[in-house]
Design brief:
By secondary structure, the protein is mainly alpha-helical. It contains 4 helices and 3 strands; from the N terminus they run βαβαβαα. The radius of gyration is 15 Å and the shape is elongated.
Length: about 110
């Protein structure tokens, strides 16, 4: 089981995660048993930290189809954002993303 929302506003998504956890608990499920992966997240450290603290386990960054010289700095920013320490909510940074920051084929660097 899992949920793959596309975040539009931080506050609204955090509230929706709280609601998901409440509904899961009411249904007799452990809220942590429902994985949450965000798609299209901007690599903003404070935002990622807030999502992780709300219970998000994974965040997928957008990588446009661009040339290598444009993609590599983007991947470096993504790797820096993904290197956040694990939160108390159990989120962990993706080691695959950090390792892929120097790939010669950026379009293949995804979770």
């Amino acid at each position: 089981d899992g949920w793959l929302p596309i975040p539009l506003r931080v506050g609204a998504l955090v509230d929706e995660i709280k609601q998901l956890h409440e509904l899961a608990a009411q249904a007799g499920r452990d809220p942590k048993s429902i994985g949450i992966t965000l798609y299209g997240v901007p690599p903003v450290i404070d935002t990622l930290r807030e999502y992780a603290n709300a219970g998000v386990q994974r965040s997928l960054f957008m990588l446009p189809s661009v040339d290598r010289d444009t993609a590599l700095p983007m991947l470096d920013r993504y790797a820096a954002a993904a290197a956040l320490p694990a939160s108390s909510a159990g989120a962990t940074p993706s080691p695959r993303l950090a390792r892929s920051s120097r790939s010669t084929t950026p379009s293949r660097c995804h979770e």
